[in-house]
Write a structure and sequence with these properties.
The complex is a heterodimer of chains A (237) and B (401). Chain A is α/β, with parallel strands linked by helices and 237 residues long. In chain A, 35% of the residues lie in helices and 24% in strands. In chain B, a hairpin with a 2-residue loop joins strand 8 and strand 9. The chains are: A alpha/beta (237), B alpha+beta (401).
Amino acid sequence: MTNSNVPLIELVGLTKSYGEGAAEFQALNGVDLRIDEGDFAAIMGPSGSGKSTVMNILGCLDTPTNGAYLFRGVHVETMTGRQRTLLRRYFLGFVFQGFNLLSRTSALENVELPLLYRGVPKQERRKAALEALAQVGLTGWEKHTPAELSGGQQQRVAIARALVTKPSILLADEPTGNLDTKRGREIMELLTALNRDLGITVLMVTHDHDLAGYAHRIIRFVDGVVEPDGAAAEKRS
Amino acid sequence: MIWNTILLALQAIRRNLMRSFLTILGIVIGVAAVIAMVTVGNGATQAISNQISSLGSNLLMLFPKMEFHGGSGSTARQFEISDVEAIQTQISSLKAVAPIVSSSATVVFGANNWSTSVTGSTNDYFTASNWKFASGRTFTDSELRSGKSVCVIGDRIRRELFAGKDPIGSSLRVKGFAAEVVGVLKSKGQGGMGRDQDDTVIMPIRTVQRRISGSQKINMVMLSVKDGVLSDDVVSQVKLLMREQRRITPDKEDDFEVMDTKEITQTLSGTTKTLTGLLGAVAAVSLLVGGIGIMNIMLVSVTERTREIGIRLAIGALENEVLLQFMVEAVTLASVGGLVGITVATVVSMILTKVMGVPYAFNLGINLLSFFFSAVIGILFGFMPARRAAKLKPIDALRHE
């Protein structure tokens, strides 16, 4: 959207290993990946292929072992923890498989929370949160706590929480993993609409071929690397 | 930003009312127990030292020794007036020598009567026992010499019999004779070993000997040692003199006893110190139990709170903001608990000291100490797990099981 030459996200030879010595496990073996502004991409691959690991690194929830992660051309892998937090706060929205809402806290307060950390004044915060909840179709459910909402509704609250800051990219790690097919489709339609109508870049991980079909581009992971033919994305209309 | 963080902390307290309540309860119990126990212990110590100082300073008491004759009762060889005169003339380091004849009688004034103790003595008795006069005077020499029917009354007698009227110049009926009230003593308050020291009538010794006890014998002698004189030396002088006076041969033991009130003072204050120490130890245990309660609640909620911290970090909270929130939370709970604890302790110690009849004194030191101790426990166990969690990578905090 801003500069077509600089991708929104670029990963170069990214590796990640857990443990040490004999117990060392290589989760990522040199991932090269490029996501442009406005993309709607789905990462697919078998369990243990490194899909979630790469998402967590992209979301600045985890750090890579080696390689480069560039966000709009800026190196993220060398940032301090504080800088990564600020990147999360101002540019990234993350949706988890397990929702991760604050318990005993109303939907509205959950959605307001990221704005609170941004220092947005109370009135503005409320207005933006109500708007985000309306976008995910939860008008009328603002006062409900997660325990009073269905799984699909909880995930909508989580998406509203990720949207409310108007992030540059929405990272969704198996957002439909804990939902049945019908609710899963509703969430996918919601993500599609957000990408189409608001121009938000969406990167998601999924197991489900049908759901991946909503994306414009499919990236396949195998054994901690991106499969070459998957990288040559087929564009759908 | 700080305001927002405080807001978040208060929200967290409100959302977890049960946890907050239990944490506060732990602190309240710990703080209240320590403060109440120490305050009551101090009150008891204070009461005992008040009693000791009202007894008179540097006082020796000369008693006859009781001799028991298996089953057929006991006898005690009383003192003669000549013994008292010998002490007065031969021992120079004494401020006052008061021979005492004790008795009890029912005293009557108008329609009121009251059963009390009657003490026969000289003016030295007022010096030795530290009595001050509220009104009136001591006995005159002629009253003492002739054994006139006059008396000095304690504050309790004034309250029981005269009810607001001035007793000076009135006559009490004691055992069928009339005694004119010449003086009223200042109150000493609740006295030693549960007896009211103000419940007393004092008369010249001869009056009591002649009209009440009907004998020339003296029950005991109070000796007040001059300031700066070692009471141990005086005790041995008195013992030597009494053996001589009472013609006790070297192969016999003393048939009298000299008691030094300084020793009583030391024994009693030692006892109360032990008592306060014991109460303090019990209280410290309650504080510890309260502390463990807080610890328990905090640790149980660590998993939930670690995930909460993970969520907050993931949506863009800085480590410091999360820590500040938890710090504010812990400080708020600890302070509320501490303040409630101090309030409860104050009420409880006021009631307890009143019931026990000991003075109440607000002890700032122990209030501050227990408040800060529980605050530290609350903050430590509320804050430390949070600190550990906030240091984790967000993804690890979120995965915490």
